[in-house]
From TrEMBL:
Annotated protein name in UniProt: Methyltransferase PMT26
Membrane-traversing stretches: 55-75
Disordered: annotated segments: 104-264
Ranges of compositional bias, category Basic and acidic residues: 130-199, 250-264
Feature: compositional bias, Polar residues: 238-249
Family label: Belongs to the methyltransferase superfamily.
Keyword Transferase included in the entry's annotation: yes
Keyword Membrane: yes
Localization in the cell: Endomembrane system; Membrane
Membrane topology: Single-pass membrane protein; Single-pass type II membrane protein
First and last residue of the signal peptide: none
Keywords: Glycoprotein, Membrane, Methyltransferase, Signal-anchor, Transferase, Transmembrane, Transmembrane helix
Database matches in Pfam families: Methyltransf_29
Length: 800
């Protein structure tokens, strides 16, 4: 069997050799006859025709004789193989075959190279241009005189040569690409090292200009070292470019690749939301499919949050004729009608000076149901009724329940008081939207079946002026929720008809409220009547000790279990119970905060025994955070980003820690909504302790506000944590929803996240105004555009 294999291999080799020799003879013969004819035509005058003829004949005879001798030897060798060959192992046979195959491949390669050389037109200084014509004519004659079988062989050879040529080109291209990549990497590394070297030398070169020294000093002040890596390199760009540009390559392939933009808008295909609410769409409050299936609405379940299973990734449309909001403080008195085109509230509440139509504006005379003659008079009336309230001193942060258009909170700014107003999205059309368009802090919420999104014991005062909440029913469950949020020693101001009217209904409510507040150990400190507005107000105070609770004859309302955390507020059901007051002086709630404004920059005493968010003792963390944001805001945000702060009124810190960012903005005429994400350390009580306010929120869901309600959004290392739980496209769609056109979005995060966000905002046609980077940390300052997609996406859950 082995002999047979060797024999077949030998025969195959002889056949291929014979074929090659035959083709060589034919080729030489052709060339001989062609040259003979050309000589006769005078094309080779320098060559003797006779000599050439004899030379060609000699070559032909030699080749034929060689062919015969080689063939005879090969056949003889094949048949005279020794019998020992039968003892070859399969391995040896395989090696022999491989060797033969290798030799054939090498011969084939040499033959191809020979053919390639023969096919090329060479230019000899001594040869005339006629030689080129001769080669062309020679090829033409070869094609005409070749037989069909020879043509097929030639075609196969050409295809083979083409394949080898292609393979060779590909290998060469890959080699060049690898070399270019290596060169590019080296250049980038060198560029990085050079930049580092330049950064290190700028501050030490003796010949540096005063401007450069000033800039370096400013950068050190703007981005101080801290627990989080600060950002030192700042560049302002017009086109919003952020990605590092590739080093130009010398080869054509790399040049073509570099001409293709890295950031393709097609990666993110934005569409406009097609929803029943139109430009007022709020995903978690407009989930009409879920609302239709609710079994009961008696506890205002239909006004609560019902978020869709998948957060929308579409962009909310703009109202027709929308304009940039009027600046504060003029916005407190009037807004553009086209921005909030709703007239129902003006029709039903105009006589109470809530809101009125006036040409292209909606105007706000500053009145309300309980203060028709103006909010300032009413605010002073409360202060005079009980001076211990001390607006802007003892009382700094308040909650306004059922706020209407929030004129009460709007005028409290003149008393240095922050009022967070809230109301549901109900038949009082767009009341919270009016408030936010005016530049007054407000949010959508309802007192229904769940706790409010605030910690326990944080508000200095809670206010209700005809807020239409039935406090006295179901064991006082709703009033007990206010008790949870009210600071020990804080006040509840109730301005409602049961306080000053004596009809049967109001008298019954007053009696029930009196019994409930007594059982809750609230002290009725005063009841006063405002003669100008013909209204009255009852002021209650929450106890600062548990003495009253322990002396109650009945445990009604009951005290909450010790395991009940009063700070747990995100989607937690309401319970009709009261939390005990903290009497331990080392814990929060045992004492009243410092007076305003001292409390803003003073670390609460109850932080002494805690570890801070950044790993240091909490007081040190607090101080470091405060100083960092002071420097960043004053040296960079205010003057270094090109932000027109006169257009900034409503601000949100999407990931507040200790509230340092908001505290650093205290001297500007604006307010900050501090948001503590539900998956972040619970530092919201610290923020309230400082005289600021905020809420809990999950940024994988929509925020409880109308579209286009904030002028500036600030996100410090938020998106890199969110990408682990939800899609950043949905988060960016929410950012687009709540940010006003031409509003500013500042994001600080790791470079990978920054790069992804930059691609998204570019695809939304936003303008990247400022980019900054250091190590693996980056910053973008972005301006929202007016662009809206032409294509729409129907959100089935939001279609009536």
């Amino acid at each position: 069997m082995t002999s047979f294999i060797v024999y077949n291999s030998a025969v195959s080799v002889i056949a291929r050799a014979f074929d090659r020799i035959t083709r060589s003879i034919v080729d030489v013969s052709k060339r001989f006859h062609l040259r003979t004819r050309n000589m006769a035509m005078g094309k080779y005058s320098r060559v003797d025709g006779k000599k050439s003829s004899n030379y060609g004949l000699t070559i032909t005879i030699v080749l034929i004789v060689s062919l015969c001798l080689v063939g005879t030897w090969m056949f003889t060798s094949s048949w005279s193989a020794s019998d020992d060959s039968a003892g070859y192992s399969s391995t040896d046979t395989s090696k022999d075959v491989d060797s033969v195959t290798k030799n054939v491949a090498e011969e084939k390669k040499e033959e191809n190279e020979s053919v390639t050389e023969n096919s090329q037109v060479k230019t000899d200084p001594e040869e005339s241009s006629d030689e080129k014509a001769e080669v062309v004519e020679e090829r033409k004659e070869n094609d005409e005189s070749s037989e069909d079988g020879e043509k097929e062989k030639i075609v196969k050879e050409v295809e083979s040569e083409s394949d080898e040529s292609k393979e060779k080109v590909v290998k060469e291209a890959e080699s060049e690409s690898d070399e270019a990549k290596e060169k590019e990497k080296t250049q980038l590394e060198e560029s990085t090292e050079e930049n580092k070297s330049e950064d290190g030398n700028n501050g030490t070169e003796e010949n540096a200009s005063e401007t450069e020294e000033s800039t370096e000093k400013s950068n050190k002040e703007v981005f101080p070292a801290g627990d989080q890596a600060e950002i030192t390199k700042e560049t302002t760009t017009k086109d919003g470019s952020w990605s590092t540009q590739l080093v130009e390559s010398q080869n054509e392939k790399k040049a073509q690749e570099s001409s293709v933009p890295k950031d393709q808008d097609s990666v993110y295909e934005w569409k406009t939301c097609n929803v029943t609410a139109g430009p007022d769409y709020i995903p978690c409050l407009d989930n009409l499919q879920v609302i239709k299936r609710l079994q009961s609405t008696m506890h205002y379940e239909h006004r609560e949050r019902h978020c869709p299973e998948e957060s929308p990734r579409c962009l909310v449309s703009l109202p027709d004729g929308y304009k940039r909001s009027i600046k504060w403080p003029n916005s407190r008195e009037k807004i553009w009608y086209n921005n909030v085109p709703h007239t129902k509230l003006a029709a039903i509440k105009g006589h109470q000076n809530w809101v009125k139509m006036s040409g292209e504006h909606l105007t706000f005379p500053g009145g309300g149901t309980q203060f028709v003659n103006g909010a300032l008079h009413y605010i002073d009336f409360i202060q005079e009724s009980y001076p211990a309230i001390a607006w802007g001193n003892r009382t700094r942060v308040i909650l306004d329940v059922g706020c209407g258009v929030a004129s009460f909170g709007g005028f409290l700014f003149e008393r240095d008081v922050l009022a967070l107003s809230f109301a549901p999205k109900d038949e009082h059309e767009a009341q919270v939207q009016f408030a936010l368009e005016r530049g007054i802090p407000a949010m959508l919420n309802v007192m229904g079946t769940k706790r409010l999104p605030f910690p326990g014991s944080v508000f200095d005062l809670i206010h209700c002026a005809r807020c239409r909440v039935p406090w006295h029913i179901e064991g006082g469950k709703l009033l007990l929720e206010l008790n949870r949020a009210l600071r020990p020693g804080g006040f509840f101001v109730w301005s409602a008809t049961p306080v000053y009217r004596k009809n049967e209904e109001d008298s019954g409510i007053w009696k029930a409220m009196s019994e409930l507040t007594k059982a809750m150990c609230w002290k009725l400190v005063t009841i006063k009547k405002d003669k100008l507005n013909a209204v009255g107000a009852a002021i209650y105070q929450k106890p600062t000790t548990n003495e009253c609770y322990n002396k109650r004859p009945q445990n009604e309302p009951p005290l909450c279990k010790d395991s009940d955390d009063q700070n747990a507020a995100w989607n937690v059901p309401l319970e009709a119970c009261m939390h005990k007051v903290t009497e331990d002086s080392s814990k929060r709630g045992a004492s009243w905060p410092n007076m305003w404004p001292e409390r803003l920059e003073t670390a609460p005493e109850w932080l002494d025994s805690q570890e801070g968010v950044y790993g240091k003792p909490a007081p040190e963390d607090f101080a470091a955070d405060q100083e960092k944001w002071k420097t960043v805001v004053s040296k960079s945000y205010i003057d270094g980003m090109g932000i027109d702060w006169s257009n900034v009124r409503n601000v949100m810190d999407m990931r507040a820690v200790y509230g340092g960012f908001a505290a650093a903005l205290k001297d500007l005429k604006l307010w900050v909504m501090n948001v503590v994400p539900v998956d972040a350390p619970d530092t919201l009580p610290v923020i309230y302790e400082r005289g600021l306010f905020g809420i809990y929120h999950d940024w994988c869901e929509s925020f409880n506000t109308y579209p286009r309600t904030y002028d500036l959004l600030h996100a410090d290392h938020l998106f890199s944590t969110l990408r682990k739980r939800c899609k950043l496209e949905s988060v960016m769609a929410e950012v687009d929803r709540i940010l006003r056109p031409e509003g500013t979005f500042i994001i600080r995060d790791d470079m990978e996240t920054i790069g992804e966000v930059e691609k998204m905002v570019k695809s939304m046609k936003w303008e990247v105004k400022t980019t900054q980077s250091k190590d693996n940390e980056g910053l973008l300052s972005i301006k929202k555009s007016w662009w809206r997609p032409t294509q729409t996406e129907t959100i089935e859950s939001a279609i009536a």
